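Example record for the data management plan.
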Amino acid sequence: MNRSREISLAACVLILAIAVAVGWRDRQRIELSRERNARAISQAAALGISPGSPEKKDAVRITKRERGPRDGDSKREAAELFALLKKADATEDQDETDAEFEKILGRLVSLGPETTELLIKELLADKELKAGNRGGILSMLLMKLSGENPQAVLRLLSDLSGISGDKDEDQRIGDILLTTSLTNWGKKDPRAVGKWIRENAVRFPGAINDSIKCGVLSGAATRDPALALSLIDEMGIGDQDQAVILITRAARTTEGRTATLAALRSHFSRFPGEDSKRQVIHAAVRELALGAFDGGYGPASKWLETAKLDPSEMVAVGSALEFHHTYKETDQWLDWLGKNMPAGKVGEPIGRIMGKWTELDYQDAGRWLAAVPEGPVRTFSIQAYAAAVSKYEPETAAQWAMILPAGKDRDSTLRQVYQNWPKDAAAAREVFAKEHGIE
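Corresponding structural encoding:
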């Protein structure tokens, strides 16, 4: 097969990969909708409300189930598709080859997991298809199956040697499939995955490591963070602190963050007074806050209010907040920090965020600062604003510093202005130093 034919197949395989990814996202949306519907039905039942039709109280409800293809149908379809692939593989005309593969790709995307597995087995047993075609289609079908029936892919792993014709590439593909399959399976049954790992780790020396185990628990955490945390020991993970962080990062919704925080508190209640564990939960709270910040001030501040964080956890939140989170809502976030951060810890995040705001838009920051009422937010903001402005407009910075009440805050701000004074204005710098008693 010539080079142009292989490039064309690569394009076809890329199309298939995109189609498979889109299909997985659609299934995830459907699954999420089903979960929400199940919660609604459960809540209705708790209130004594039947989800059935109100007109027929005693009607028998029938649950419809999609009927999968019969075994014979799956075999026939797999055999038919395999024949079509062989036909496309044997075609010499480039345009005809492209047309043949385009016809097949649509069917490959819509295959059920049973037929997909049968077709994969046909391809693995074949010795006639050209290596590039066989390897590309196999890789995509295996990746597709790893999302639909990951256990089937795990059963096939030992038969995948020679899939690409390159030993190192075969190893890379096998590792990707192993990781993806275990992670996808772990979302539904992490305990079963843990058992599989214990029984099969010897077959994959060096491949089943903490990274894969943490990936499994991260996937499980999207459904049940408490269960994921409880399985850290059972999985035999060496870096348990990192496992906690990865489980925490799996929380991508307000509900998920609330559930994860509750699970964390319950999990770490077993280790009272251990400083190392407090550090881990602080890091986890920081991760939850980072996820909340992406939703904007309104949703994030509401979640933080309901989270009922203690002062040390609130410090962790403040350490995570950056200007790129606050952006056009910086004024609201600075006010929030002033009201919610422990008194002795509020200066650091306010100074950091205000300093960045001033660097990017000193006029906008200055207009806001001029209207801020007396208090810690104003004091720390003026200090940060003056420090940032002093690098190019030291006289203006000095005027802001003098707004502060006489005392250590004003003195330290004036000293910062002096230190930042442009070196090419040495004479004015020394006049400033004498005026304010700076040595």
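Summary line stored alongside the record: The longest helix spans residues 3-46.
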